[in-house]
Design goal:
Elements: H1 2-22, H2 32-50, H3 55-68, H4 74-79, H5 84-102, H6 104-116, H7 120-134, H8 141-160, H9 171-186, H10 196-207, H11 210-254
């Protein structure tokens, strides 16, 4: 409760500061509409970081401020509700709620573990497979990783009676690292495995022509190969130099 009061106090101070900036002239080469939009977004981000209200409340408040201050036209604000990626993510969230209420995700994970989880490596593969199966219908990496996989991980490590010494490598630390990294990778495999994927795809489709995107990716791959080869050449040069230095040093000692 005390932490909540401190967060609200800090948020109030930040809001007063943003209100003072609202009436100040915009920086050079920045339009007033852009300046006001920036301040409203800062208000939203501060509320999210300090957790002063649910995300839905903060989102509606931000939209209301954008409309009331005429920073953004109301048809433009409401047009985002008609975007297909938004509804795709929304229905995926509905399915995620069903997974959580029916414990279907937990049951699938425990079923796979009971049949294939015979050692730490196979357990890691099973956790990855669970994340892979759930990813298309749960469009949130935190919901999958922290809401489903992490409690299962905790149950497994509790049953294994891992050593609590932080300096000792344990199955718990191994599975935690594996599931964390795989959660982020699998988040980019499917269109609905992360809420931002459809929005990024829609933005890219509206700003970057398909042929230009392919050319840009090919150019990045070519540059990556170049730098990889360059690093390999530098490593070989350093190895050869160190061998030559050791040879010269041994020759001088022999003389």
């Amino acid at each position: 409760m005390r932490a909540k009061k401190i967060s609200i106090s800090i948020f109030t101070i930040l809001c007063l500061g943003l209100l003072a900036l609202w009436f100040m002239p915009a920086p050079a080469h920045v339009q007033m509409v852009g300046w006001h939009s920036f301040l409203i977004v800062l208000f939203f981000l501060a509320g999210c970081v300090l957790n002063v209200a649910p995300l839905s409340v903060l989102s509606l408040t931000m939209m209301t401020l954008l409309g009331l201050t005429k920073t953004m036209a109301m048809p433009v604000i409401l047009s985002f509700f008609g975007a297909p990626p938004v509804w795709l993510v929304l229905f995926a969230f509905f399915m995620a709620i069903g997974f959580r209420k029916t414990n279907l995700g937990n049951r699938m994970a425990y079923f796979l573990i009971s049949h294939f989880g015979h050692n730490p490596i196979s357990l890691a593969y099973v956790m990855a497979l669970c994340d892979l199966i759930l990813a298309p219908v749960i469009p949130n990496t935190n919901a999958r990783g922290a809401g489903i996989l992490f409690p299962i991980n905790q149950s497994l490590t509790g049953a294994l009676h891992d050593d609590k010494d932080p300096s000792t490598a344990t199955v718990s630390s191994y599975l935690t690292l594996v599931t964390f990294h795989l959660n982020l990778i699998i988040g980019g495999l499917f269109f609905t495995s992360m809420a931002t994927n459809p929005l990024v795809a829609s933005l890219a489709a509206s700003t970057i022509p398909h042929q230009d995107f392919v050319v840009a990716v090919a150019h990045l791959c070519k540059r990556a190969d170049y730098f990889s080869g360059h690093r390999h050449a530098v490593t070989n040069f350093q190895t050869a130099s160190s061998k030559t230095h050791r040879f010269n040093h041994s020759s001088s000692d022999s003389h």
